[in-house]
Amino acid sequence: MTSFYDDPDAALERIQADIRGAQERAEQAARFKESVDRLRGRARSPRGEVTVEVDTGGQLVDLRLSDDATEIVARDLSALILDTVRAATRDAAQQAMVVTAEMFGEESPVTAQMRTELAPRLG
User: Fold this and answer.
1) Which tens digit of pLDDT belongs to each residue from 31-53?
2) Can you give 45-114 as a three-state secondary structure string?
3) 3 state SS of 5
4) Predicted structure pTM score
5) Region 99-111: what's the mean pLDDT?
6) How far apart are CA 40 and CA 81, in angstroms?
């Protein structure tokens, strides 16, 4: 086996291949981030009084209350809103898992890491 310094052309080829590989991984990571950033989880309460949209971080993006929501006791409405936000958060996490598995493969370390990070939101 030749050493790194025995064949400078081969060494240069390996370095260039490593650089190309790093550039491809960086581009893939940027595409992944853009895809995940665009995701929105959505949920609607069983009777439709509350509709919620969250981003992949679980941050509330939109909250809509139907006119029927005003007939619900405040304590119950609060609980219904929180339950619907949790459902939307699960939806966003599930979508993020699908995107991750599609981009990196179901068994990749990236997918495994994402699964670990999203486990609390997946329920």
Assistant:
1) 888 988 999 999 999 999 999 99
2) CCCCCEEEEECCCCCEEEEEECHHHHHCCHHHHHHHHHHHHHHHHHHHHHHHHHHHHHHHCCCCHHHHHH
3) coil
4) 0.79
5) 91
6) 17
